[in-house]
Write a sequence for this structure.
């Protein structure tokens, strides 16, 4: 079956409040199966789905990697990883059954024979396990391997649906390093897989509260009339981490916070906050609206970069009272590295809804706490009655907490009880944990399930990715030019360089205290 047609059939419009995708039996082939991502995220995610009864019985995982290993050895390794990283305790009886569906396939990524034998093995698994010719290829290997894997899958005929089944590919970031390379990668992907078969993962979209943004905006009637330049003063997006580069220097030295987080995760969140209501909930209807937002982002041209963008790098400092080294002292980092571990930006969206509403974004490693949130700051109440002279009331702020403590809060003004008139800000607060009393699934769980169900809503489309690079490229170019704007240092454990505060102070604003 053609995958686009399949999407329609299994997922008719994703309509209604109770809509949910139905995962189909399939074989998940993970390229780069012995890597960090498989250990920390993928295998625990599949296990949790199985433990929660979310998977059809016929789901098989095949690890594809270079090192020689037996199925049993691989199972043991996956068990250890899952016990370590799973969000719920691993139950022996569930693992016992689940592990029988895990296999290992040893091959070099560039060895055609390895793909031929994979194809044969998948055929056999289809017959024995009922996976119905459905194949999900997960690219968890380094991006330098993507082209080789794609070519080999194609040559082995694994890119095409077989016996009424489907073939899909999930591609991890980084999806290119600039517009040119992203276009080239899209071209290469499309040589083997159609866009309808391609799932570019951005795990931020799988986070529960990120998904809730559209519900908040479009399932409630009260916010949408206010959601524009008339009522919104500005928006802030913060993604703060206490972690440093954590042994990923090889990759991070070529990426930096802009490519690692802004180009993908932060711009995706911004799209959800800023997009127009889609006409329906089809994947492409939503993605059509998202791409319009990125297209409308005012490009920060080279001469403007030093005014609108602040880049920083952490120096030695302390996190939770524990001393930590500076970025340049981390293993495998160049002692003179100018890679940014912090970015703050002022962004404008050139469309009717958002004209003149600045969007401030900041992202950083080794900040005082790990927290991701979006805050929408509404305009001040008119300077009459309660909001005049010496008393300046706070603005209403709607905060969407992506993590931790997922939830939404609204700051408003209230009278302090008593005989005199004193006004203070109070918070209306919704916490997922207490309102629903159950832990949210991990982003990877949701996204894997969606890919197995043929629902691409929470995956980035080729044009979204390219537009995001078109926005980021001029900034990167300015940073790599001879007269590059300065790189500011901040002590680990602080909220980034002072210049990031000045970026807002110049506009008479300040970052929200997290
Ligand atoms: C990844 C980045 O995509 O997201 C990491 O490569 C970052 O550098 C991570 O730490 C943050 O994700 P999360 O889900 O832990 O907030």
């Amino acid at each position: 079956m053609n995958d686009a047609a399949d999407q329609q059939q299994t997922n008719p419009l994703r309509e209604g409040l109770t809509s949910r995708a139905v995962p189909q039996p399939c074989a998940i082939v993970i390229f780069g199966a012995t890597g960090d991502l498989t250990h920390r995220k993928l295998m625990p995610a599949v296990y949790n789905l199985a433990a929660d009864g979310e998977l059809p019985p016929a789901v098989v995982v095949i690890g594809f990697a270079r090192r020689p290993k037996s199925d049993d050895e691989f199972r043991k390794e996956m068990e250890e990883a899952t016990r370590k990283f799973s969000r719920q305790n691993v139950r022996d009886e569930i693992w016992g059954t689940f592990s029988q569906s895990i296999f290992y396939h040893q091959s070099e990524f560039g060895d055609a024979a390895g793909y031929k034998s994979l194809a044969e093995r998948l055929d056999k698994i289809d017959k024995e396990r009922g996976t119905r010719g459905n194949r999900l290829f997960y690219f968890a290997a380094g991006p330098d391997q993507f082209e080789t894997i794609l070519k080999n899958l194609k040559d082995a005929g694994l890119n095409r649906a077989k016996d009424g089944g489907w073939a899909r590919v999930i591609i991890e970031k980084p999806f290119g390093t600039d517009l040119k390379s992203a276009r080239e990668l899209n071209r290469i992907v499309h040589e083997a897989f159609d866009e309808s078969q391609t799932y570019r993962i951005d795990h931020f979209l799988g986070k529960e509260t990120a998904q809730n943004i559209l519900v908040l905006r479009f399932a409630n009637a009260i916010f949408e009339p206010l959601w524009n330049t008339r009522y919104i003063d500005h928006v802030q997006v913060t993604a703060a981490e206490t972690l440093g580069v954590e042994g990923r220097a090889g990759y991070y030295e070529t990426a930096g916070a802009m490519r690692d987080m802004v180009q993908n995760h932060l711009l995706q969140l911004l799209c959800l906050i800023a997009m127009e209501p889609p006409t329906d909930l089809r994947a492409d209807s939503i993605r059509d609206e998202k791409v319009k937002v990125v297209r409308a982002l005012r490009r920060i041209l080279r001469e403007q970069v030093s005014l609108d963008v602040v880049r920083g790098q952490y120096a030695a400092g302390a996190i939770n009272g524990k001393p930590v080294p500076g970025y340049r002292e981390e293993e495998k980092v160049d002692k003179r590295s100018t890679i940014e571990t912090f970015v703050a930006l002022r962004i404008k969206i050139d469309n009717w809804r958002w004209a003149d509403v600045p969007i401030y974004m900041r992202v950083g490693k080794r900040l005082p706490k790990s927290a991701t949130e979006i805050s929408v700051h509404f305009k001040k109440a008119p300077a009459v009655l309660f909001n005049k002279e010496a008393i300046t009331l706070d603005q209403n702020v709607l905060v969407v907490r992506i993590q931790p403590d997922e939830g939404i809060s609204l700051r408003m003004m209230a009278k302090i009880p008593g005989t005199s008139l004193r006004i203070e800000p109070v918070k209306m607060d919704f916490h997922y944990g207490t309102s629903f009393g159950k832990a949210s699934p991990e982003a990877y769980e949701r996204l894997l399930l969606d890919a197995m169900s043929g629902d691409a809503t929470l995956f980035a489309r080729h044009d979204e990715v390219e537009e995001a690079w078109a926005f980021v490229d001029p900034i990167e170019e300015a940073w790599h030019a001879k007269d590059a704007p300065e790189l500011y240092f901040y002590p680990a454990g602080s909220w980034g360089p002072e210049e990031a505060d000045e970026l807002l102070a110049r506009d008479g604003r300040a970052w929200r205290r997290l």
